[in-house]
Amino acid sequence: MEKRKDIYDRLGVKKFINAAGTYTAIGGSRMSKKTLEDIADAAASHVEIRELQKNIHEKLAELTKNEGAYICNGAAAGLYLSIAACIASKEGKAFNYIPIAKIMEKEVVTFSAHRNPYDWSIKQLGAKIIQIGFPNIILPATAEDLENAITDNTVAVYYAAGSEDGWIPKGALSFEATVKVAKERNIPVIVDSAAQLPPVENLWNYTKQGADIAIFSGGKDLRGPQSSGLIVGRKKLIDIITKIGFPNYGIGRMLKVGREEIIGLFSAVEQFVNMDHEKRRNWCEDEIKRLQEAFNRSNLFKIDRTYPNEAGQPIPRAFVNIIDNNRLKAKKLQELLMEGEYGIYTNSEDRNGVYINPMTLQEGEMNIIIDRLKEIEG
Ligand SMILES: *Cc1c(COP(=O)(O)O)cnc(C)c1O
Q1: Domain harbouring 297, CATH code
Q2: Which run of H or of E encompasses 180?
Q3: What residue ranges in the chain does DSSP mark as E strands?
Q4: N or C: which end of the chain has fewer CB within 10 A?
Q5: DSSP SS3 for 348
């Protein structure tokens, strides 16, 4: 049967099956049919954006069991807006009236182990990043280190959430200990939990445990629009974010969130909260088992189950070990997977094989992956 030609075929842009994970550079995740339908409806009519925001933000606060919620255009933008709100809160006036020189005095405390390229959101605002501890276990950061780093200029503590089994190195203070110190000093804790869904409970757990703000990417496992993000937390800070954010003039004006993103993310969060997460996890386990069974007699590939995944999420992955390294190297395997009838995009993380992440796969795609690996095996 002739395959339908879509816009990517017409453009000559290579498309592929994402067996790597919710990486933004390859489009993160795919929206559900229901979300896409809701977005089409959103685009078909005009509404008052502020009224839509108010309506949806209230519903999102309830859905995520938080005092407040705000939809921004990505977790990185969410961090930018949240730190701006912390600065405005500290100064006790609207962000637009705070001179740049004043912003530049402000400090955001974080752990060396939590530094990452997304903290440009803090630097771009003009605030300073005050770094404590080391990104390893030689001398782990202590509560005393955090207490000593807090000054009159401190506006927030930035905490990168995630498992040390994922990308975050050891060396930081625990979340609970961080919150305890920050609370004593009345400093808000901003949690970057962009990729920390699942588990779904993280939508409310960080804030329940004392964070003032938690930020999630809309385009990762939430499966909302790529250019969306969700900020949840204390009403006082969310109210300030709402004033700084789009469609108001000021720094939030360049972080536009259209009604398509607002509706799309709301629809996605509603589906995510109501999803049968256990069924989904079992589906992932079964897909990995199928892959293992397909190669249990192979003399080229050995399939291992690994857990948790690269972001520390409670979803297993499969690792396709190359047994015979004289026959095949990881980089070559990645190239061959991309070359088949359907391209298959994988990560190797510098190991002797490739990871297959079921998180971003749909029904039927594991079969295509198995068939292609068999072809490569020859
Ligand atoms: C993906 C990610 C972000 C950025 O999320 P966007 O929604 O793409 O802006 C920020 N922080 C961390 C830790 C991330 O993994």
Answers
A1: 3.90.1150.180
A2: helix 175-184
A3: 16-18, 68-72, 107-111, 128-132, 154-160, 189-192, 213-217, 229-233, 301-306, 317-322, 343-345, 353-356
A4: N
A5: coil
The rounded Å distance from CA 79 to ligand 1 centre is: 9
The tokens describing 60, both together, are 């999102």
**The domain boundary residue, chosen from 274, 291, 310:** 274
Domain that holds residue 90: 33-274
Helix 235-244, helix 49-63: angle, nearest 10:
150
Amino acid at 168: I
| Torsion from C-alpha of 103, 105, 109, 115, nearest 10 degrees | 70
Within a domain: 2: no
pLDDT of residue 311: 86
The whole-number pLDDT of residue 369 equals 98
Pocket residue to mutate for ligand 1, from 213, 215, 217, 360, most atoms within 8 A of Cβ: 217
Same domain membership, residue 286 and residue 268: no
pLDDT, position 165: 75
Q: Is 1 inside any structural domain? A: no
Q: In this predicted model, what pLDDT tens digit does every residue of 100-109 receive, in sequence order? A: 999 999 999 9
Please answer whether residues 308 and 163 qualify as being in contact, where contact means their C-beta atoms are separated by less than 8 angstroms: yes
What per-residue confidence (pLDDT) applies to 232? 98
Spans of the chain below 50 pLDDT: none
Domains held by the chain: number: 2
Domain identity same for 196 and 222: yes
Residues lining ligand 1, Cβ inside 6 A: 24, 74-76, 116, 118, 160, 192, 194-195, 217, 219, 229
- Tell me how far CA of residue 320 lies from CA of 18, 93, 340, 348, 371, in angstroms: 15, 55, 17, 9, 14
pTM of the full predicted structure? 0.96
Please report, as a single letter, which amino acid is at residue 127: A
CATH assignment at residue 186: 3.40.640.10
In a domain, 308, yes or no: yes
Question: Which ligand 1 atom is nearest residue 311's CA?
Answer: 15
